[in-house]
Structure prediction request, 335 residues.
Amino acid sequence: MPCSVVVCGFFGDTGKGKIISYLALKDKAVVTARAGVGPNAGHTVLYKGKEYKLRMLPSAFVNEKCRLLIGPGVLINPEVLLREIELTQSKERVGVDPQCAIIEARHIEADKKGQLAEQIKTTGTGTGPCNAERALRTVKLAKDLSELKKYLVDVPLEVNQAIDKGKNVLIEGTQGTYLSLYHGTYPYVTSKDVTASAACSDVGVGPKKVDEVIIVFKAFTTRVGAGPLPDEISMEEAEKRGWREIGTVTGRPRRAAPFSYELAKRAVMLNSASMAAITKIDVLFPECKGAKSYDELTQGAIAFIENVEKEIKIPVTLMGTGPDALEIVDRRKLI
Ligand code: IMP
Ligand code: MG
Prediction:
């Protein structure tokens, strides 16, 4: 902080929602801006015993004082957005940029058939066809929709003013580095770049205004949809190790593999990450469940974290030890 960007260093689903909700509470973020593709993302937040699965609103909503903005680079499905505003009771603090593009029924239909559905195995949420139309300059924008009128604000202006006043600002990336249209495993990727630079561009923040880039990894690697996954294990083996997960948006089982040091190293480079978070430490090392300080971690967990740090050459400052927003070890002040 003051301005931190949070992105994923693998294939998405590393727990950005959890990390962002923790940071928003702990660092008293004043403004969050959602970057990334659109409602193809699924961010899970568990707070005060309640689980939220968000596809449009920033995961920072758990901090009731935080502004919840959506940057112009992001695609909006108005139905999903309005449902989430209702679910989180946040209508007074939501702001949508007038230049966000709108997903319509035809985009969703096109995403659910042909090569996108069968070869790429997309989320079917219409984001690829909508971004394609955006490039053709025929897509509708948020400013054209009367149901979004009361939420329209100049998001880049609000975010930059907050940064200039020294307030804590969080930029929430989505998907993961290796799903980037430019840096990922093309053609098995999403419909735009999703690295830290793209997240900044999505919300209108230039590269000189960012203080921290926090890259989120999980203690093992997962991937949903088609495309390469180094050292992939079978679904049966994943089940045995407790690594089997189900996709938030699509309900599909996630493919799994051990933590990839090679992917992690390159992701740190591509995002100019300044620190790392690793979630699900408690899945690899069950005795760490619920730990809130570094000395509560087991020797095995500490050896793993030290090994990651040696490889990626940036500090691992946040370690997830359970699904709740507050089940976390935070070493940021100590490093
Ligand atoms: P699309 O983004 O729906 O076009 O899907 C392209 C690829 O990215 C597919 O393999 C999806 O499963 C994957 N994908 C898109 N969004 C996410 C996400 O938020 N988490 C994990 N995988 C995603
Ligand atoms: Mg997800």
